[in-house]
Structure formats: C-alpha cells, structure tokens
Amino acid sequence: MGLLKSSRSSASPSDNATIECVVCGAHASGLHYMVWSCNGCKTFFRRAIMENRKYSCARNGKCQIGVKNRCCCRHCRFEKCIKVGMTFTELNVERKRKVHMANASILVEQFSWDQEDPLVRELLAKQRQFRTLLTSSFTPIFSTLDHALQQPSVFDGSMKIFENFQLEIPELNVERKRKVHMANASILVEQFSWDQEDPLVRELLAKQRQFRTLLTSSFTPIFSTLDHALQQPSVFDGSMKIFENFQLEIPGNQLDFYDWRARILSITVEWIKSFSEFKGIPSSDQRSLIVHCSFALLVFSEAFQTPERFSDRLVYPDGLQVTRNFSRGICIPQNGLIRGIVAVINFILAPIRRIQLTEVEYVFLQTLLLFDTDCLSLSESTLRLVASKQEILFVSLQRYLFAKMGANSMGSANRMAQLLLRISNIQKVAAFKRQFFIDENSLNILGSNCAKSSFAIQLANLYPDISFF
C-alpha cells in the first residue's frame, strides 16, 4: 500500500491533501510526532505515551493495521506507531511542561492569601529588633570578629533592656514624613485616569520618533567636541521637515560602524538638550550630565534600534550588521572593540529581546539613564531637580504598568523590577566602552577612525573627573 493516492513518489507539506497516514492508511491531517499521520493515530499515540498505557495482543503481535481494523488491536497499533518512526521527544517536553504547570498551580492554591506569610512576619520582627538596637545605649559594639562571635545573638533574647536604655536624641519625625510621602504617592496613583494616556509618555514617544528621523537623515549634525555640541539649541525643539526631506540614500550610501556610533552619540546629545529640565541647569552641570550618561544611552540605543527579529547582532538602518565575530565582511582588528560589541549583544540586546521590552518601557529607561542622581559632580540644586524628575518618571512608569497589567497584580511589580534591573547591565557595558576608548586612543590604535571617534574619546576621558561607576 503506497503512501500517495496519486502517482507521485514524494510529498511536500503543500501536498498533504493526498498523503496517507503511515500507520493506518487513512487521510493524513499533517506531520505529527515526526511522521505523516491521521488525527486518530496521532491522538492514540499521544494518549498511550502520556498515560503510560500497556497493551497486549491475542494474536502474538501479528495483527494487520488498516483503516477499518485499526481499533481492533491497540497493542499492534502502538507497535506500528513506533515502527514507522513516531517519536517520544515532543511528548516528553509536553509532559514535563504539564507537570511543571500542575506543580505551580498546587503551590498557588496551597498559599493562603488571607494568612500573613510566616517568613514575612519573621523578617519584619527582626527589622523591628534592628531598629530598637540601633537607638539603644546598651547595644554591644564589637572590636574584632572573635569578639563578635563569642556570645549568642542578642536578637534571640528579650529586647526589654534595649528598649529601656535608649539614646537621648531629638525626635526626627522620620516615620511621620515617610507615611506622608507614601500617602501622597498613593493619591497620585489613585488619581490617575487609566483611560487617558499619560502626557509624559506622549512626550517621550514623540522624542523617540524624532530620534529615528534624525538617525536616517543626511542633514543630522555630527559633533566632534562637547563645546561644539552645546553651541546651538537642540534640533528636537524645531521642525523635523528638513530632516525628513534629506534622508540617507540606503543602501547606496552605506556608513561604517564608526560613522553610526558618531551619529547615534550626536543625536543622543541633541535628545538630552531637548529636555526643559536640562535647559534650566547651569552649563557646568549640563556638561557633567552629558559626560555621565552619554555612553549608557549610546549602547542602549544601539541595542534597541536594532530590528526586533535580531537578538544576536547589532543592525543599523542601512543594513550594516555587526555580529559577535564581524562575519558580515567587516574587518576590525581591535580586540577591545570586538569585546565591546559582544558585551552590547550579550548584556543588553539579548536580555531586552528576552523580556520583550516595549517602546514605552524603552523611553522610560532611556530617560531614567539621563536623570541619574549618581552623577556626583552635579550641584545641589541640580541634584534636587534630577531627583524630582526621577521620581516623576518612576511614578509614571508604575502607573503605565498598572494600566497595562492591573494595579492589584504582582505582575506590574515584577515587571517594574525586571526593567530597573536592566540599568545596572547597561552601566557596566557603558563603563567597558569608555575604557576601550581611553586605552585604544592612548595606544594610537584607532588610526584613520580616530577623527570619527573624537567626540566619544573626549567624553570617555572627561568621565573620571565627573563621576565614577
């Protein structure tokens, strides 16, 4: 009995209307468990494996399996499934997935949401003891590790003596201020209209559209020094018409890696200059903020501007692809540069693809990288302004996630943590990039590309005087 009802000897997926089940000869509905089979044999094989069924044959396993008698002997039918090549692999994966989901479901069901977690109670009790000891005049102070390990922990005993002997300090009203702050934050969240788009989100997305327009414009200004970059107001504040009209001829005008990096860095500085908060701070603080955050914004932008379908290479708008080994015809001998590209791919691009970072989440993280209170050389007034903007961004991001995932869902809190954890990796890669430019420039390895990298080199050299990571 042939596999095909027609005279052809082979079949492709497009021919499955004429393909027979290799087990019983009925019409095959598709490729199931690595062989062409009908729905009946597919379901029979799946149940036999998933439920670990055992069959026996009254005719010593010599039954002929066909369309009409396939249900007569399950033993011989199962043996034929194995013989024609049906595989357990997919079923094993499915079985493990179901077991995992069942276990997870049991864990969730067993947890009593009406009862406070004992671990939480224990940790909070320790925290209360910690605070008592912090302000007690009777708290033991150790001079050596051996001294500290001589006695059992005071946390295991009564706190009465420590509560009775407290340091005489002024009332700071810390707890009251904290409660007022939390209440205000709660009011902000409750007052948010979930049906109305956040104006801050609209503003950040508009800047992102401008960024993309400038990225592919032949009229985009490219800076060679920081003074050059700060001479004029931001092009983001004006019309984008001229930049839309003068676009790069792609792919006829392909740029190299150094061109794209200089372009992204220059546009990033223009983007920074467009914020009203940035315009209102002293010029010295403006320089410090640009030096502090520009490399983090550069590497983050390189990763996010890569088309979504790529997670193993950086892809620029003209089609230039930079892979881990530069296999797309690019020959760059500097090992440091290659390691820098690998760092961007492994620690920024791959993770943001894995968590499926959205454009809204990207612009929030991008702006949080700019308004960073860890820039140590900022003046006190600017630090307060940056901290205020940072808090606004946090609240707005939280409200966005509440609207997207539900205000009472743990999912929004988990997503918030997942996003903020990206920042540390971005900063690490930025530090690696800065060090590369410092090292390569001092060794004069960049050669003819030094002019294209002059702005990046200057920012890298200024960083140690501005901040540290």
UniProtKB/TrEMBL annotation:
Domain NR LBD residues, every copy: 196-469
Gene3D superfamilies in the record: Erythroid Transcription Factor GATA-1, subunit A (3.30.50.10), Retinoid X Receptor (1.10.565.10)
Major place of residence: nucleus
SMART domains reported in the protein's UniProt record: HOLI (SM00430), ZnF_C4 (SM00399)
Keyword Hydrolase: no
TM regions (residue ranges): none
The keyword Nucleotidyltransferase is assigned to this record: no
Keywords, comma-separated and alphabetical: DNA-binding, Metal-binding, Nucleus, Receptor, Transcription, Transcription regulation, Zinc, Zinc-finger
PANTHER family: NUCLEAR HORMONE RECEPTOR
Family to which this protein belongs: Belongs to the nuclear hormone receptor family.
Protein name: Nuclear receptor domain-containing protein
Lineage: Eukaryota, Metazoa, Ecdysozoa, Nematoda, Chromadorea
